Amino acid sequence: MAFTAFLDTCTLFGGYLCDTFLRLAEAETYRPLWSADVLDELHRNLLRRGLAEPAVNHRINSMRRAFPDADVTGYQSLMPGLTCDEKDRHVLAAAIRGSADVLVTFNISDFPARSTEQFDLDVITPDDFLLDQLDLHPSTVIEALDGQADAYRRPPVSTDELLHRLTAAGVPRFSQDAQLQINRPPP
After folding, report:
1. Which helix (H) or strand (E) holds 182?
2. CATH code (residue 80)
3. Of 79, 107, 125, which marks where a domain is finished?
4. What is the DSSP string of 107-164?
């Protein structure tokens, strides 16, 4: 069974970071999980950011089509018994119901250890998750980053520029280590 990661809304919000996460999932380094509540929250937040509704719908529908087994359902009954931040109980409940190995979020403080340890669920930052992916699958991650950069046409983006944008998106240690991997001389 593939390593599973439940992706909180904040992880999917930024376009470059979301694209990186989804490209690694396409490369089968892990299996992504989310819920309808997470995608609804993503939809609302992207609209608030000023993105056009057709573009937002296209992004979310593309995610659903690419990963039809990512959507976790049937978690609502778990929510009342959870002790994490109340606004994030739907996230933790879906991660538990989906048997996620990790919950990936920038909002670590919303999920104190006492609220997750009984479920054997680690809560980690996107930076830590991507560092783990780079450690476990270095060539696959670098290939995915190169492919991601090559896919951008308006404007074109180099892999170096992509890594700078990922640093700004909140994954600076991953970006730095990926840059080191890229610049490492071949054996």
Report:
1. helix 172-183
2. 3.40.50.1010
3. 125
4. -GGGS-HHHHGGGT-EEE-HHHHHHHHHHH-HHHHHHHHHHHHHH-BTTB--HHHHHH
Per-residue model confidence as pLDDT tens digits over 108-152: 999 999 999 999 999 999 999 999 999 999 999 999 999 999 999
CA distance 28 to 47: 30
pLDDT in tens, 2-18: 899 999 999 999 999 99
- Concatenating the DSSP letter of every residue in 28-76 gives TSSEEEEEHHHHHHHHHHHHHHT--HHHHHHHHHHHHHH-TT-EE-S-G
For residue 81, give its domain range.
4-125
| Sequence letter at residue 11 | T
Number of compact structural domains in the chain: 2
HSE-CB for 4 with a 13 A CA cutoff: 18
0.85 exceeded by pTM: yes
Locus of tokens 């919303």: 110
Tell me the CA end-to-end span of the chain in Å, nearest whole number.
32
